[in-house]
Amino acid sequence: EGAELATGGTRRGIAVSTLAEARFFAAGGFDDILYAYPLPGGRLEECAALAQRLRAFQLLLDSPQALDLLRQRPLPAGKRWLVWLKLDCGNGRAGVRPTDPDALALARAIAQGAPEEVTLVGVYAHCGDTYGCRDVPAIQAIARATTAAVLDFVTA
Prior knowledge:
alpha/beta; 5-stranded parallel beta sheet; 6 helices; globular
């Protein structure tokens, strides 16, 4: 009910952190879901089932190995993997550092490799390092630093 309110009734454009959540919302009629965690290789078939079932099932990628997994598991005709490059802008949990030259190489590999199979939707950063903040100025400082890092990356 909360997700329906948050989407204005469209049941589109939600982010989940587990595949169980993705399946739950898909069963409830949501058909545009971002799995906001880097692709777990051992769960590829579950991701493929959701990608085939939903209008848009989107994933995060943060390594060439994950990209290779998707390319080795193409979706049926009319479907393609929709991916976001996961950037680690300081919390050290997941993603590629935007200052790492390999990050731009990975973005190019996703975007230029085989867009009919794997399509780069954009870049994604999560300010998870705000969890330990004790006040609004600290949260704002992390948000500004993350925004600057993302903008520097996409304009490189």
